[in-house]
Amino acid sequence: LVLSNEHDLLETGVDIVVQPPGKKLQFISLLSGGEKSLAAVAMIISLFLIKPSPFCLLDELDAALDESNIGRFVQVLKDFLAQSQFLVITHNRQTIASARTVYGVTMQEKGVSRVVSMRFRERPDPKLIDVPAEPANGEPQAPDEP
After folding, report:
1. Beta-carbon neighbour count of residue 41 at 10 Å?
2. In b/e form, how buried is each residue of 60-96, taking b as 16+ CB within 10 angstroms?
3. How far apart are CA 2 and CA 130, in angstroms?
4. CA 141, CA 135: separation in Å to the nearest integer?
5. Helices (H), 1-146
6. pTM for the full model?
7. What share of the chain is helix, strand, coil (3-state, %, to 5)?
8. Of the chain's two ends, which shows fewer C-beta atoms within 10 Å, N or C?
9. Under DSSP, is residue 3 helix (H, G, I), strand (E, B) or coil?
10. If you write DSSP's letter for every residue of 25-66 in order, what string do you get?
């Protein structure tokens, strides 16, 4: 963050200057939509690192991001879930798929809107599921009789 006029502090503005990886230092207004979104996410996350908030509302912050950056965005949000709750307004399927709870509005009939909510459970890790082992000879085991 840079003051636009250091000599007149009452009338000065604040410019945001960023340096995405592989690029030179430049004003945020000169960046692409995705780079602006990444800069915004970086700024929000840096504020959360200093002073976490219990609640955060993000409105389509991921709209301009590509798939790989959406994955990074979702992972960063998951890292903060222990201390903060996020309400994310989005149309992105990858972001929606990572949510614990989804609220939406659907129109099944023309002119009739309906609110829909879904809460998702954590899927168990397939590595931790107890699967009976096959016998050493490779023959299938007969089912147990009651």
Report:
1. 19
2. ebbeebeeebbeebbeebeebeeeeeeebebebeebe
3. 57
4. 7
5. 33-50, 67-79, 93-97
6. 0.66
7. 30, 25, 45
8. C
9. strand
10. -EEGGGS-HHHHHHHHHHHHHHHHHHS--SEEEEESTTTT--
Span 94-139, pLDDT tens digits: 999 888 899 988 888 898 999 989 888 776 666 655 555 555 555 5
Residue 109, Cβ density class (10 Å: 0-12 exposed, 13-18 middle, ≥19 buried): exposed
- For residue 100, the one-letter residue type is R
Compute φ and ψ for 127, nearest 5 degrees: -70, -25
